[in-house]
Amino acid sequence: MSRRRTPTLPTAALCAALLAVPACQHAPPARGFTIRYEEPAPADAADAALLRTRKPAERAVTALNAYLDLPKPVTVLARSCAGEGTGYDPDTRRIELCYDDVAQERELLTDEAAVADVVTETVHHEAGHALVDALDLPFPSARAEEDAADRFAALMLIREGPDGERALRTAAEEYLLTAAAGPEDDPEHAPPAERAATHLCLLSEASPTRHPDLAPRAHTCTPDWPTTRDTWTHDLAPLLR
Ligand SMILES: [Zn+2]
Q1: Separation of CA 69 and ligand 1 centre (Å)
Q2: Tens-place pLDDT, residues 14-67
Q3: 37: which strand partners?
Protein backbone atom coordinates (compact mmCIF):
# COMPACT_ATOMS: atom_id res chain seq x y z
CA MET A 1 0.00 0.00 0.00
CA SER A 2 1.13 3.58 -0.50
CA ARG A 3 -0.38 6.53 1.30
CA ARG A 4 -0.75 10.22 0.60
CA ARG A 5 -1.12 12.61 3.50
CA THR A 6 -1.00 16.30 4.22
CA PRO A 7 2.60 17.46 4.77
CA THR A 8 3.85 17.72 8.35
CA LEU A 9 6.55 19.98 9.74
CA PRO A 10 9.92 18.24 9.14
CA THR A 11 11.69 16.89 12.22
CA ALA A 12 14.68 19.17 11.52
CA ALA A 13 12.46 22.24 11.77
CA LEU A 14 10.88 20.99 14.98
CA CYS A 15 14.32 20.27 16.43
CA ALA A 16 15.55 23.76 15.58
CA ALA A 17 12.66 25.14 17.62
CA LEU A 18 12.78 22.59 20.45
CA LEU A 19 16.36 21.61 21.12
CA ALA A 20 15.48 19.96 24.42
CA VAL A 21 13.20 17.34 22.83
CA PRO A 22 14.85 13.90 23.28
CA ALA A 23 14.17 12.87 19.66
CA CYS A 24 16.30 15.82 18.55
CA GLN A 25 19.27 14.51 20.53
CA HIS A 26 19.15 11.27 18.52
CA ALA A 27 18.60 12.61 15.02
CA PRO A 28 18.10 9.85 12.45
CA PRO A 29 20.85 9.32 9.85
CA ALA A 30 20.60 11.51 6.78
CA ARG A 31 20.40 8.59 4.31
CA GLY A 32 19.27 5.02 4.00
CA PHE A 33 16.67 2.90 5.76
CA THR A 34 16.35 2.98 9.56
CA ILE A 35 13.85 1.54 12.03
CA ARG A 36 12.15 3.09 15.03
CA TYR A 37 9.62 1.62 17.45
CA GLU A 38 6.77 3.51 19.08
CA GLU A 39 5.27 2.27 22.32
CA PRO A 40 2.41 -0.08 21.40
CA ALA A 41 -1.19 0.32 22.52
CA PRO A 42 -1.82 -2.22 25.31
CA ALA A 43 -3.74 -4.52 22.93
CA ASP A 44 -0.74 -4.66 20.56
CA ALA A 45 1.93 -5.49 23.17
CA ALA A 46 2.44 -9.12 22.06
CA ASP A 47 2.74 -8.09 18.41
CA ALA A 48 5.28 -5.38 19.23
CA ALA A 49 7.23 -7.92 21.29
CA LEU A 50 7.34 -10.30 18.30
CA LEU A 51 8.85 -7.57 16.13
CA ARG A 52 11.41 -6.67 18.82
CA THR A 53 12.38 -10.30 19.41
CA ARG A 54 12.36 -11.74 15.88
CA LYS A 55 13.63 -8.54 14.22
CA PRO A 56 12.01 -9.05 10.79
CA ALA A 57 12.14 -5.32 10.03
CA GLU A 58 15.84 -5.15 10.94
CA ARG A 59 16.42 -8.10 8.58
CA ALA A 60 14.84 -6.16 5.71
CA VAL A 61 16.55 -2.86 6.57
CA THR A 62 19.98 -4.51 6.78
CA ALA A 63 19.51 -6.16 3.36
CA LEU A 64 18.24 -2.91 1.80
CA ASN A 65 21.16 -0.83 3.10
CA ALA A 66 23.69 -3.48 2.03
CA TYR A 67 22.27 -3.46 -1.51
CA LEU A 68 21.40 0.22 -1.95
CA ASP A 69 22.84 3.60 -0.99
CA LEU A 70 19.68 5.70 -0.76
CA PRO A 71 20.66 9.38 -0.44
CA LYS A 72 17.51 10.18 1.56
CA PRO A 73 16.38 8.79 4.91
CA VAL A 74 13.43 6.38 4.99
CA THR A 75 12.21 5.34 8.44
CA VAL A 76 10.43 2.09 9.15
CA LEU A 77 8.19 3.21 12.01
CA ALA A 78 6.67 0.32 13.96
CA ARG A 79 3.53 1.59 15.65
CA SER A 80 -0.05 0.95 16.67
CA CYS A 81 -2.14 2.16 13.72
CA ALA A 82 -5.64 1.33 14.99
CA GLY A 83 -6.51 -0.40 11.73
CA GLU A 84 -5.11 2.24 9.39
CA GLY A 85 -2.93 -0.38 7.68
CA THR A 86 0.78 -0.72 6.98
CA GLY A 87 1.93 1.58 4.21
CA TYR A 88 4.53 4.00 2.85
CA ASP A 89 3.88 7.71 3.33
CA PRO A 90 5.80 9.81 0.75
CA ASP A 91 5.21 13.03 2.70
CA THR A 92 7.19 11.82 5.71
CA ARG A 93 9.22 9.11 3.91
CA ARG A 94 8.02 6.67 6.52
CA ILE A 95 7.05 3.04 6.20
CA GLU A 96 4.46 2.69 8.92
CA LEU A 97 4.58 -0.93 10.05
CA CYS A 98 1.47 -1.61 12.11
CA TYR A 99 1.53 -3.82 15.19
CA ASP A 100 -2.17 -4.49 14.58
CA ASP A 101 -1.36 -5.93 11.14
CA VAL A 102 1.05 -8.36 12.82
CA ALA A 103 -1.93 -9.53 14.90
CA GLN A 104 -3.75 -10.44 11.68
CA GLU A 105 -0.73 -12.42 10.46
CA ARG A 106 -0.61 -14.27 13.78
CA GLU A 107 -4.21 -15.35 13.28
CA LEU A 108 -3.39 -16.81 9.86
CA LEU A 109 0.04 -18.26 10.71
CA THR A 110 0.48 -19.66 14.20
CA ASP A 111 4.27 -20.06 13.85
CA GLU A 112 6.15 -16.93 14.98
CA ALA A 113 9.04 -17.52 12.56
CA ALA A 114 6.53 -17.63 9.70
CA VAL A 115 4.90 -14.40 10.89
CA ALA A 116 8.35 -12.77 10.99
CA ASP A 117 9.06 -13.96 7.44
CA VAL A 118 5.83 -12.35 6.24
CA VAL A 119 6.70 -9.08 8.00
CA THR A 120 10.09 -9.03 6.25
CA GLU A 121 8.33 -9.48 2.90
CA THR A 122 5.94 -6.65 3.81
CA VAL A 123 8.79 -4.25 4.67
CA HIS A 124 10.45 -5.06 1.34
CA HIS A 125 7.16 -4.40 -0.49
CA GLU A 126 6.83 -1.01 1.21
CA ALA A 127 10.52 -0.28 0.52
CA GLY A 128 9.63 -0.85 -3.14
CA HIS A 129 7.14 2.05 -2.87
CA ALA A 130 9.77 4.17 -1.11
CA LEU A 131 12.19 3.52 -3.98
CA VAL A 132 9.54 4.30 -6.62
CA ASP A 133 9.10 7.61 -4.77
CA ALA A 134 12.83 8.31 -4.36
CA LEU A 135 13.63 7.51 -8.00
CA ASP A 136 10.40 9.05 -9.32
CA LEU A 137 9.71 5.92 -11.35
CA PRO A 138 6.68 6.25 -13.60
CA PHE A 139 3.86 3.71 -13.48
CA PRO A 140 0.68 3.85 -15.54
CA SER A 141 -1.54 2.99 -12.55
CA ALA A 142 -1.53 2.42 -8.80
CA ARG A 143 -2.03 -1.28 -9.48
CA ALA A 144 1.08 -1.38 -11.73
CA GLU A 145 3.11 0.18 -8.88
CA GLU A 146 1.70 -2.39 -6.43
CA ASP A 147 2.71 -5.23 -8.76
CA ALA A 148 6.22 -3.75 -9.07
CA ALA A 149 6.47 -3.46 -5.26
CA ASP A 150 5.56 -7.16 -4.98
CA ARG A 151 8.25 -8.02 -7.52
CA PHE A 152 10.77 -5.89 -5.60
CA ALA A 153 9.97 -7.89 -2.44
CA ALA A 154 10.50 -11.12 -4.38
CA LEU A 155 13.82 -9.80 -5.76
CA MET A 156 15.11 -8.86 -2.29
CA LEU A 157 14.15 -12.22 -0.76
CA ILE A 158 15.58 -14.22 -3.67
CA ARG A 159 18.82 -12.20 -3.32
CA GLU A 160 19.00 -13.33 0.33
CA GLY A 161 19.41 -17.01 -0.64
CA PRO A 162 17.73 -20.02 0.99
CA ASP A 163 16.37 -18.14 4.06
CA GLY A 164 14.91 -15.42 1.86
CA GLU A 165 13.41 -18.02 -0.47
CA ARG A 166 11.73 -19.64 2.54
CA ALA A 167 10.30 -16.25 3.51
CA LEU A 168 9.00 -15.74 -0.03
CA ARG A 169 7.27 -19.13 0.06
CA THR A 170 5.77 -18.30 3.46
CA ALA A 171 4.49 -14.96 2.15
CA ALA A 172 2.90 -16.81 -0.78
CA GLU A 173 1.28 -19.28 1.63
CA GLU A 174 -0.09 -16.37 3.65
CA TYR A 175 -1.63 -14.87 0.48
CA LEU A 176 -3.23 -18.25 -0.29
CA LEU A 177 -4.67 -18.41 3.25
CA THR A 178 -6.00 -14.87 2.79
CA ALA A 179 -7.57 -15.88 -0.52
CA ALA A 180 -9.18 -18.93 1.11
CA ALA A 181 -10.65 -16.73 3.86
CA GLY A 182 -12.86 -15.04 1.26
CA PRO A 183 -12.95 -12.01 -1.02
CA GLU A 184 -11.45 -8.75 0.25
CA ASP A 185 -12.35 -5.19 -0.64
CA ASP A 186 -8.87 -4.31 -1.90
CA PRO A 187 -8.92 -2.72 -5.37
CA GLU A 188 -5.32 -1.48 -5.02
CA HIS A 189 -3.51 -4.83 -5.09
CA ALA A 190 -3.74 -7.92 -7.24
CA PRO A 191 -6.04 -10.55 -5.68
CA PRO A 192 -4.09 -12.51 -3.03
CA ALA A 193 -4.13 -15.77 -5.04
CA GLU A 194 -2.52 -13.88 -7.93
CA ARG A 195 0.11 -12.36 -5.61
CA ALA A 196 0.91 -15.87 -4.32
CA ALA A 197 1.19 -17.21 -7.87
CA THR A 198 3.59 -14.42 -8.87
CA HIS A 199 5.87 -15.03 -5.86
CA LEU A 200 5.93 -18.78 -6.48
CA CYS A 201 6.55 -18.60 -10.20
CA LEU A 202 9.38 -16.06 -9.78
CA LEU A 203 10.88 -18.34 -7.14
CA SER A 204 10.58 -21.40 -9.38
CA GLU A 205 12.30 -19.57 -12.25
CA ALA A 206 15.02 -18.01 -10.07
CA SER A 207 15.88 -21.07 -8.00
CA PRO A 208 14.61 -24.24 -9.70
CA THR A 209 17.00 -26.69 -8.04
CA ARG A 210 15.98 -25.73 -4.49
CA HIS A 211 12.26 -25.77 -5.33
CA PRO A 212 11.66 -28.73 -7.66
CA ASP A 213 8.06 -29.00 -6.42
CA LEU A 214 7.38 -25.60 -8.02
CA ALA A 215 8.69 -26.72 -11.43
CA PRO A 216 5.24 -26.65 -13.09
CA ARG A 217 5.13 -22.92 -12.32
CA ALA A 218 8.39 -22.15 -14.17
CA HIS A 219 8.08 -20.30 -17.50
CA THR A 220 4.67 -18.97 -16.47
CA CYS A 221 5.68 -15.57 -15.01
CA THR A 222 4.70 -12.38 -16.82
CA PRO A 223 7.14 -10.73 -16.80
CA ASP A 224 9.55 -13.62 -16.28
CA TRP A 225 12.25 -13.71 -13.59
CA PRO A 226 15.15 -12.41 -15.75
CA THR A 227 13.01 -9.47 -16.91
CA THR A 228 11.81 -8.78 -13.36
CA ARG A 229 15.37 -8.83 -12.02
CA ASP A 230 16.82 -6.76 -14.88
CA THR A 231 14.02 -4.16 -14.83
CA TRP A 232 14.45 -3.45 -11.12
CA THR A 233 18.26 -3.60 -11.34
CA HIS A 234 18.17 -1.09 -14.20
CA ASP A 235 15.83 1.23 -12.28
CA LEU A 236 17.96 0.95 -9.12
CA ALA A 237 21.25 1.59 -10.97
CA PRO A 238 21.77 5.09 -9.45
CA LEU A 239 21.53 3.59 -5.94
CA LEU A 240 23.37 0.28 -6.28
CA ARG A 241 26.44 -0.10 -4.05
ZN1 LIG B 1 1.74 -1.58 -1.68
Answers
A1: 22
A2: 444 544 555 555 666 789 999 999 999 999 999 999 999 999 999 999 999 999
A3: 78
